[in-house]
Amino acid sequence: MKNVNRRDARRGAPKKQKMPATQNEPKKPDFPMRINKFLALRKYATRKGGDELVSKKKVFINGRLAVLGDKVKEDDLVEVRLGGLVKKYIYYVYNKPVGVITHSPQRGEQDVLSATKLRGVFPVGRLDKESHGLLILTNDGRITDKLLNPDYVHEKEYVVKTREKLRNNFKERMEAGVKIEGGGGKENDGESYTTKPCRLRVLNDNLFRIIITEGKKHQIRRMCVALFNEVIDIERVRIMNVELAKLPKGSYRELKGDELAVFMKGLGF
C-alpha cells in the first residue's frame, strides 16, 4: 500500500470555502405584506390560521378592524385581540423636529417611534421630513379617518416662513383657494386641483399663519410655489383645539382631561 503523507492528503482534499457573513443573517422581510403572512411571520398563527383570526375579527391594524387581504406596512401597529378586555386608548401630543420621518423611513433615517421610544402607538397623518411641529400619536385607529378626511372640516394651523416677500395680493389669493398641479393623492396625480378656502394672517414680510381644513401632500408648499414663492420653514402649531404651545422640540405629552374630551367630542365621539 502506498503511503500518503499528511501534506499530500491536505493538497488533494477539497478546500473549505468560507461562507459570507451575510448568508448567515436573516433576510429582512419585504413590506408591504399580506396580513396573514405577517401573522405567520410573527408566530401568531399559520397563514391559514391568520386568515381565520381575521375572519373572526380578532386582528386590528392601527386600531382598525382588519379584513382578508389587507396589506401591512413595516410601521403599522398590528394587534391580535383574543380576549374580551376593553382596549385602553392613549393619545400623545408630539413636537416633531425637522428630519424625523412620520412613515416608512429609509436606511439611515429616524422615524417618530424610534425618536420618542414610544411603543404601541402610531402617528395620525403625516408631517413632512422638512416640516416640524404638532403630531398626534395614538393607538386609537377610530380617529384616523375622522381627523384626516377633509369632509369633516377640522382645522389645522401652521406658521410659515417664505424665501421671498409676500406679494400684496398673497393673503387674498391664498384664502380664495389656489390651483395646484396634482391633488396630492393617487387618484388626482397629473390633474390640477383648487384648494379649499382657508384663513390667513400675515405676520411680517415673509411670515404668515394659515388655517386649513384639508391636508393634501405638501399642500402649503405647493400653494406658495403656485404664487411664485417658496416655503423655507413650516411649523404646525394646532390641530383642532390641541395646541403645541411651549412643548419643546422632540418632546411629547399625554393628551388627557378636558383637552382630550373637547378633542374627542369634536371628532364625534
Describe it for me?
- The chain is α+β, with helices and mostly antiparallel strands and about 270 residues long.
- It has three domains: about 35-80, Roll (Structural Genomics Hypothetical 15.5 Kd Protein In mrcA-pckA Intergenic Region, Chain A); about 90-150 and about 245-269, 2-Layer Sandwich (Alpha-Beta Plaits), CATH 3.30.70; about 155-240, Alpha-Beta Plaits (2-Layer Sandwich), CATH 3.30.70.1560.
- Helices cover about 25% and strands about 25% of the residues.
- It is built from eight helices and 18 strands.
- Strands 6, 9, 10, 11, 14, 15, 16, 17 and 18 form a nine-stranded mixed sheet that branches. It has a three-stranded antiparallel sheet with strand order 3-2-5, with no helix packed on it. Strands 1-4 form a two-stranded antiparallel sheet.
- Residues about 20-25 have low confidence and may be disordered.
Helix-strand blueprint:
Elements: H1 6-12, E1 33-34, H2 35-41, H3 47-55, E2 59-61, E3 64-65, E4 71-72, E5 78-80, E6 91-96, E7 100-101, E8 110-111, H4 112-116, E9 122-123, E10 132-138, H5 142-148, E11 156-162, H6 170-176, E12 179-181, E13 192-194, E14 199-204, E15 207-212, H7 219-226, E16 231-239, E17 242-243, E18 252-254, H8 257-267
Parallel strand pairs: 7-8, 10-16
Antiparallel strand pairs: 1-4, 2-3, 2-5, 6-10, 6-18, 9-10, 11-15, 11-16, 12-13, 14-15, 16-17
Helix pairs in contact: 2-3
